[in-house]
Design goal:
The complex is a heterotrimer of chains A (193), B (654) and C (101). Chain A is mainly α. Helices cover 65% and strands 0% of the residues of chain A. Chain A is extended. Chain B has 654 residues and is mostly helical. Among the domains of chain B are: 216 residues, no CATH class; 73 residues, no CATH class. Chain B contains 28 helices and 4 strands. Chain B has a two-stranded antiparallel ribbon. A two-stranded antiparallel sheet of chain B has the order 3-4. Chain B is globular and about 115 Å long. Chain C has a single domain, classed as Helix Hairpins (Orthogonal Bundle), CATH 1.10.287.3510. Classes of the chains: A mainly alpha (193), B mainly alpha (654), C mainly alpha (101).
């Protein structure tokens, strides 16, 4: 029974992952990633981490991927152009990726081939134990992560805001001997590289 | 507190004087320079006399050692320490007394020269180093002094450095000295390796108690004693200008004349003799090497005497004379007659310094001219100089009553007493030659008609008292100094007892140890000894008479021509000093210069610079090629990143 | 029969490979970002698997923090994309290469 669940959702995760990396339309990719993440959440449950599964769904799919969608819509990112880089140029990348994955797989196989897992206990799965560990040994990290999130919020806000008119700085060299800001309210720097 | 507690001040005061002179700078008033420059050696002399009085009037003078401080601690324990014993006492007396007189003389001689302050600073530095050398109680302090006098010799020979040939002479002296110093150092290393210390008393007492320590086979087929003796002697050949390292001394006459008097007559060049006398324990146990020392001394003596006969520069004559007399000292030391060597050292200091200072007076009067062919008849104008010079010539020729007779005769007696008739013969002939060339110099300079220019004639004048008083004092010493060492064969008939005070003084240092092949006068019968004495007087007188017949004439220069014609081509060789310098130039200097050039062009220019240029080029190349990886495309960078991760993973896990 | 832990690890490796391939191969910035998220998640899976294997909660807690950090990172990264887009009007990474030689 457990094997069947595993097999199903593992296959689903793999398939949707492939779609994520191969599809032209970024919206489709995002949706596929949602599927992948939810499958992984199920696997988390199988591994005795239901709280994490819930977190995964809530935060990852519910917040992060939604953010992705927002940005895609905001920037109106279209389909990726066909062509642009021959098939041959992709080979080194694929080889490298395969190499790494193969190494990890090989290692995992050799190290843990027949290790059986102990059956799940009530205590292992319980949220209480998890919370105990979190707020006991990792309290400092917890606080720091909070700080990190605050910093991220501030950074994102600053980076993404519309530049005020007087701050606009066109790319490229300023014309000589002009006083004041050059082109004033020009288009945001369409510079010639 | 005894005066001897102030022993350490004796070398220190001149150093302090030198430092003070360095501080006051070249624009200091001459009076100040005089006060410091004379005050320091003067104080050192006064102190030395006080210390010696204190030491010698003790009932039972033991050697007195004063440790100043420990230079190194731990396994290698070396101290800065001074030793006062009869030998160092004699040397200290000679150095401070003659040295002070020469300092006084220099006030007059160098009065008009630029660099007055620098001169006295160097001269004081020299005094300090020389006193370190003779007062040191271990080989290390002695070596520091040894090197120090070598440095000062370089500085003072090249005093008129603005003239290229003077600077070259200074450099030549230093380099040739260095070659000797290398041998000296090797000897020191061997001693230290064997004994773990360089202290004189530690080493010599141990060897005296157990000679087998140094008589076993060591290196080069020699025993340890022989090896060390040889190495130390190599150092002595350099410092004391014996064959083959004598070439620097004649060139050293480029320095001011008082420098020649002090350094190259009375003190520095005698350091080698002092060293052999100090290490007599080792030399007595190394018979072959000692014989070598004696042979080298004898050959050098006659070699230099022949050259002196054909020189026209008055200082060069004196320089070769110094080399020759040093040869006598080494002859004595090699035969084991260390007392005779030191005795001759002392008398030689007086009359040779007198000769040099006198020649300085002459040169001063001639306005800088040193060629004797342009002199003549100066006796009328420079009476004090003339008579003191005459006294010195008598002393060096070995005429009785004067000091040189006693010391030179003791050396010849030592040779004869040991049965070394060849060496005796060489010494005998050299005595005759010495008398001949010295009186040649005297008559060419002081008698006859003046052969110089009119301008020079007007300039002729006797030197001021500050220069003539030291001459007189030294002349008194040249007469009297020999009287402390009247040999028993003469003293007993005259005084009824053995009055050889000098011999008794030095006996604890050089006589108390087991004798090797000691060739004293003990083996000579009194009759034979008196007979040989008369023979040496006769040869000296013969030399004087020969010189007189050739040079005390109306045309002295014809005398040279007569010698030249009778000796033929050999005379040319003498005038060219046997072409030794040219030989060295061919064998040593040119190959070294070529080697240096090769190193410069090839090793430095090609290899090292090439290495630098190549590495720079490779760096540039790498940069030029490597920049293509900075595409600006983030995806490429991620690929590089992944490759790195793969390598890392492989390395860490697999 | 229970699922051996090595299967989970193999699955994670496979997901990582796919994510890496995508991150290296695509030109669209958003898609690359998504691939990176995929890689992160494969790591999460590995961590949870190990946590289960070793009977400790440490792995799960690390995943907890990874989740938070991923959120922060996604926010900042997307903000960067927006900023770049304003200047260059494109998210094609091949065109954003001012730092080339």
């Amino acid at each position: 029974m457990e094997v069947a669940v595993f097999a199903l959702f593992a296959a689903l995760a793999l398939a949707s992952a492939l779609v994520v990396v191969t599809h032209r339309n970024p919206v489709y990719s995002t949706m596929s990633l949602v599927v992948t993440l939810v499958s992984l959440a199920v696997l988390f449950v199988l591994l005795g981490a239901p709280f994490l599964a819930v977190l995964q769904v809530l935060i990852y799919t519910g917040a992060i991927l939604v953010l992705f969608l927002f940005v895609i819509m905001l920037l109106n990112v279209g389909r990726e152009e066909a062509g642009g880089g021959s098939k041959l140029s992709k080979v080194p990348a694929l080889v490298a990726a395969a190499l790494f994955g193969g190494m990890v797989a090989l290692f995992s196989w050799r190290a843990f081939r027949d290790d059986a897992l102990a059956p799940l206990t009530e205590e292992f799965v319980s949220l209480k134990t998890l919370a105990g560990a979190l707020f006991d040994r990792y309290l400092l990290v917890f606080e720091l992560v909070g700080l990190l999130l605050l910093v991220a919020v501030i950074a994102a806000t600053v980076l993404a805001r519309r530049p005020r008119p007087e701050e606009r700085e066109p790319l490229g060299p300023r014309p000589q001997g002009e006083s004041g800001s050059g082109s004033g309210a020009g288009a945001p720097g369409e510079a010639a590289p | 507190m005894h005066a001897t507690d102030l022993l350490w001040l004796i070398p220190l005061l001149p150093f302090a004087g030198s430092a003070a002179l360095a501080v006051v700078g070249p624009r200091a008033p001459k009076a100040l320079v005089n006060v410091i420059g004379l005050g320091a050696p003067g104080a050192s002399l006064a102190l030395a006399l006080a210390v010696l009085w204190d030491y010698l009037t003790r009932l039972n003078p033991e050697p007195f050692q004063q440790v100043l401080y420990a230079w190194t601690a731990g396994e290698i324990a070396l101290d800065v320490a001074f030793l006062l014993d009869p030998l160092s006492a004699v040397m200290t007396f000679v150095v401070t007394f003659v040295g002070f007189l020469i300092h006084v003389y220099s006030v007059g001689y160098m009065g008009h020269e630029e660099g007055y302050q620098r001169y006295f600073a160097y001269l004081n530095l020299f005094m300090g180093a020389m006193l370190l050398l003779v007062l040191g109680s271990n080989f290390l302090v002695m070596f520091v002094g040894w090197e120090g006098v070598g440095l000062c010799s370089y500085l003072l020979i090249g005093f008129y450095y603005k003239q290229g040939w003077c600077a070259d002479a200074g450099r030549k002296a230093f380099v040739v000295n260095r070659i000797g110093d290398f041998g000296f150092l090797v000897g020191l290393f061997a001693l230290f390796a064997a004994f773990g210390t360089l202290d004189f008393r530690s080493i010599f007492d141990r060897v005296a108690a157990d000679p087998s320590l140094v008589t076993g086979e060591y290196a080069l087929g020699l025993s340890l004693a022989g090896f060390v003796a040889l190495c130390l002697f190599i150092g002595a050949t350099g410092k004391s200008a014996q064959i083959p390292l004598h070439v620097w001394l004649p060139d050293a006459m480029a320095g001011p004349t008082p420098v020649s008097a002090l350094i190259h007559a009375a003190t520095m060049v005698t350091a080698g003799v002092y060293m052999v006398a100090r290490a007599n324990v080792l030399y007595q146990l190394a018979g072959g090497i000692s014989l070598l020392v004696a042979a080298v001394g004898a050959v050098t003596a006659i070699f230099a005497a022949t050259i002196g006969l054909a020189q026209n520069d008055i200082k060069k004559v004196l320089a070769y004379s110094t080399v020759s007399q040093l040869g006598y000292m080494f002859l004595a030391a090699g035969l084991g007659a260390y007392t005779a060597a030191i005795f001759h050292l002392m008398t030689h200091a007086f009359f040779k310094a007198l000769l040099f200072l006198g020649s300085g007076s002459v040169i001063h009067a001639m306005g800088g001219e040193q060629d004797m062919r342009k002199m003549g008849g100066l006796g009328k104008h420079l009476p004090v100089t003339r008579w003191t010079f005459w006294i010195a010539c008598l002393a060096i020729s070995g005429i009785p009553i004067f000091s040189g007779f006693f010391s030179k005769d003791e050396i010849l007696a030592a040779a004869a007493g040991g049965g070394h008739w060849v060496l005796w013969g060489i010494g005998f002939l050299t005595a005759g030659l010495t008398a001949c060339y010295m009186f040649r110099a005297y008559w060419l300079t002081f008698e006859g008609e003046f052969r110089g220019t009119e301008k020079q004639r007007h300039h002729l004048h006797e030197s001021p008292p500050v220069m003539t008083v030291p001459l007189v004092i030294l002349a008194a010493g040249a007469i009297v100094a020999g009287w402390v060492g009247i040999p028993a064969v003469l003293g007993e008939p005259v005084f009824g007892r053995d009055v050889n005070w000098f011999h008794h003084l030095l006996e604890p240092v050089v006589g108390a140890h087991p004798a090797g092949f000691l060739a004293g006068a003990h083996h000579l019968s009194h009759g034979l000894e008196i007979g040989l004495m008369l023979l040496s007087i006769a040869v000296a007188v013969a030399g004087i008479l020969l010189a007189r017949s050739l040079f005390r004439t109306a045309d002295p220069l014809a005398g040279d021509a007569r010698i030249a014609s009778s000796l033929g081509g050999y005379y040319r060789l003498l005038a060219d000093k046997y072409r030794v310098d040219e030989l060295y130039d061919w064998i040593v200097v040119r190959p070294l210069a070529a080697l240096a050039r090769a190193f410069w062009k090839v090793v430095d220019g090609f290899v090292i610079d090439g290495l630098l240029h190549t590495s720079a080029f490779l760096t540039e190349l790498t940069g030029d090629l490597g920049r293509f990886s900075t595409t600006g495309n983030a995806r490429h960078y991620v690929l590089y990143f992944l490759v790195g991760v793969i390598v890392l993973f492989w390395w860490l896990v697999a | 029969m229970t699922v051996p832990v090595s299967w989970y690890l193999l699955l994670a490796a496979a997901l990582f490979t796919i994510g890496a391939a995508g991150a290296l191969t695509r030109r669209n910035g958003i898609t690359i970002f998504l691939s990176i998220e995929l890689m992160l998640n494969s790591a999460n899976l590995t961590l949870v698997a190990y946590s289960r294997l070793l009977e400790q909660h440490t792995g799960q807690l690390v995943v907890f923090f990874v989740l938070a950090v991923a959120a922060a990172e996604a926010a900042v990264g997307l903000a960067l994309f927006i900023a770049v887009y304003r200047h260059r009007r494109t998210i094609d990474l091949d065109r954003i290469n001012l730092l080339r030689w």
